[in-house]
Amino acid sequence: MAEPEKRNFDDGPDHRRTERLREGETGTGVGPSALKYAAARAESTTEISAAVKARQQRYVGCLRKLADEIEPFSSVMLESAVRSVRDLAIAVDDHRKKCKCAGCRLRKTPQNAFLIVAAVIRRTAQHYKLHLEYSDLQVYLERIGESHSARKIRHYGNIGIDILKGYEEDCYGCDANAEIRMTDEPTLTMLDRMTQGATRICEALGLPYPTQVRIHDVLKAWNARGFASSTTSTIAAAAVWSVVKSEGVELDAVANAAGCSTGGIYTTLKKHA
Ligand SMILES: [Zn+2]
Ligand SMILES: [Zn+2]
Question: How far is the centre of ligand 2, averaged over its atoms, from the C-alpha of 149 (Å)?
């Protein structure tokens, strides 16, 4: 397991290494470029401090544990997310070195690494067109014994993602007041999120509008009685399935459109029966 990880890391972007190589191109250095590359590469690995390496290990450990719970999160997504959290571990130090702002919100990273890797999982999933809500992450985290509100996961997640973006663009958006703007975002109710999720599934399946309305009514009824403990997409998919199962739509098609398992839909529908 250690070997492919190392390869991922070596293949991953290292901004400082790239810069050094660019400098080398314009410099007067002699010797084959492959040798220079190898030297720069060796240098870039020794450059990472023990503290950053420990943070990388912590992030990757938490990432793997959480990703394991998310069935539609593929191994390709995991590889990409591993690269991102390793960069993030470097970026946290990089920002602290470069930032001159008193009370910068990007310095307030969480003690608990799960809170920061959750948002990286969400961002990576989004890149691969897999939609994950913070409320979904809350459910997945609860399954591994990590109890945090969706709001808290989003708050720390935004800090992590902003640090990562700053590192990737070599320009940190430091702002002591930025989190005030962030919390001004309208908050969706549970029913809103389920309804949005169901609409996305309906659109993917090309279901007619009257069917969508019936599905929304199912969700309203479930909401009145209380939703089962499951992810947004699974509950939305179960509501869709409850309406379309008698209309010749395959369960597999619903599961694919929702990005969840057929078993999950089945169990969730039973809970609402
Ligand atoms: Zn700053
Ligand atoms: Zn800053």
Answer: 25
List, for residues 72-128, the tens digit of each pLDDT value: 999 999 999 999 999 999 999 999 998 888 789 999 999 999 999 999 999 999 999
ipTM of the complex: 0.73
Do 128 and 42 fall into the same domain? no
Give the distance (Å) from ligand 2 centre to CA of residue 259: 36
Relative to the alpha carbon of 163, which ligand is closest? 2
Centre of ligand 1 from the C-alpha of residue 176, in Å: 9
- Contact (Cβ atoms closer than 8 angstroms) between residue 73 and residue 125: yes
Task: Check whether 31 has a pLDDT greater than 50.
Answer: no
For residue 194, the domain's CATH number is: 1.10.472.10
What pLDDT is attached to residue 41?
A: 46
Range of the domain at 38: 1-23+31-47
Of 166, 183, 200, the position where a domain reaches its end is: 183
CA of 105 relative to ligand 2 center, distance in Å = 7
Rounded (5°) CA angle 192-197-198: 100
Structural domain count of the chain: 3
Half-sphere exposure of 103 (CA within 13 A, CB side): 5
Of residues 237 and 2, more confidence is placed in 237
Structure-block tokens of residue 68: 């394991």
